[in-house]
Structures are given as structure tokens and as C-alpha cells.
Write a structure and sequence with these properties.
Order of helices and strands: HHEHEEEHHHHHHHH
Structural class: mainly alpha
Distance between the termini: 30 Å
Oligomer: single chain
Radius of gyration: 21 Å
Number of helices: 11
Length: about 300
Amino acid sequence: MARHSRYVADRGLTARMVTTMFLIGLLYVVLVGVLVAVLSNAWPFVLVIAGGLFVAQFWFSDRIAAFSMGAREVTPQQAPELHGAVDRLCALADMPKPRVAIADSDVPNAFATGRNQKNALVCATTGLMRRLERDELEGVLSHELSHVAHRDVAVMTIASFLGVLAGIMTRVALWGSLGRSAGRDNNGVGLLLLLVPLVSAVVYVISFLLTRLLSRYRELSADRAGALLTGRPSTLASALTKISGDMARIPTKDLRKAEPYNAFFFVPAFSGESLASLFSSHPKLEKRLEQLSRISTQLGQ
């Protein structure tokens, strides 16, 4: 961390982040190499697209995520309770205060985004603020701020985007190659139609699995760090139980809108039993509550 906060460091999380970024970065380099080799005439275009999209994602990831989730930045006058909670936690953690936002959604949730502490943003939904008591809200925000302190939110943003970027870049390169091949007898076009989508699919699946493994661990790490900072693991457990129970009462259409952003949320939004629940970005509720119970016992001793 550029500035050491009072959040408990997690070496296991750091090791997993480094490993995930190395493997996904290696996968990304291999993909670019394959595209350059297969689409020899289009290699400058491939490199420009790859570099440009990656730089744009790195610098504007916080704005893209906030816009996608409907977050609007608010002042202390507009949201005094939310700002007050963030102020208290940042003072307790000795870390810079991030920008504060609210998303107008009945789905009770919160998320943090940003490439570093100076550019971070923490957001709570109106549904979350309406349902939680003050101590419970602080527990959730402490969890989210730990993502910022540990920098895992930036790693997740970049890692998640690389899989999507692989698909976009592959399709653009394929279209460019096919356009130049139109009207010519090119025996390689048929091979491209099979090879390029296959490579794109493999890259996406591997990056998806890697980010899911990291995401589940980082949520447990954030629960642990957030509970230790406030010294009240029971309030975080209460918020988890309350939010998870209320998810079942949220209209399916609202949950479906929220599902693509589960990796960033405090609690995942699922619109029923689906494959998404099998590859969840979060550990099971029981596992999170069990960990908080152990922390409560340790603090009591």
C-alpha cells in the first residue's frame, strides 16, 4: 500500500493478487501473440487496440464502474449520515477519505472502486441505507474501505476487464482481417473463423475462473479486516444476514440488472438458482458468518 492504514494486512491476499495478475497478464500476452501471428497483416492494429483499451481501463475504471452501476457522487450536505460513517472509519483507519456516492437502487448493497486510495470511490445503495442501522452500515462500509486499503479493488477491476478486452480485441481483429480478405480467395479465412473465437473463449474462461477464485478470498479478507478495525464483528454479521435475507424479496428484474457487477458488491445479487451461483464471486454466507463468529470469540478473550 502506498500509505499504510490501520487495516490488518493480509499476506495471503497479496500473494493471490500477484499470482492472479501474473497469470492473467501472461494469458493476455499469449493472446496478443497469437493474434499477431495469425493476423499478420493486422498486427499494428491489434497492438494499438490492445494498448489503448488497457490504458483507458486503468485510468477510467472507477468512472466506468460508477457509471455502469448508477452511482452519483454526493456531498456531506446531501448525505450526512453516509459521509459521517465514512469520516469516522477513515479516521479510525488513518487513510484518505474516498469520494462518496449513492446508487438509486432498492437492491441492498455497497461497493468500492478506484485504481488507488486517491481515486477511490465508495458507494451505498438507497436500499442498503434504508434497511440497516447505523452500526450495521458502518460495518459494511468498513468492509468496502478495506478493499481500497488492500488495493484488491483495483486488481479485480483490471483482471475482470482483461477477459472482456480479449473478446473485444479478438473480434475487432477478426473483422479487420475478413474485411481485407473480402473478394479474394483466401484459404486462411475459414481457419480464422474457427481459431479466433476459440482463442477468445479460452482466454475468457480462464480469466473468469482466476478472478472468481481471487474474489472469494478477498471477500473473506475484507470481512476479517473490517471487523477487526471496528471491533464489532457482530454488526457486520447482522448486516450480512439482513441483506442476504432481503435479497429474496427484491424483484427479479432488479437482481438481473445487478448480477453483472457481483464481483464488486458486498453481497452477490442472484435472480434464482443459476450457473452464476455455482461460480459465485462471494463465499457462502455460512462461511462468512462462521469466520466473524471466530473473530468475535477471539476479541472477547
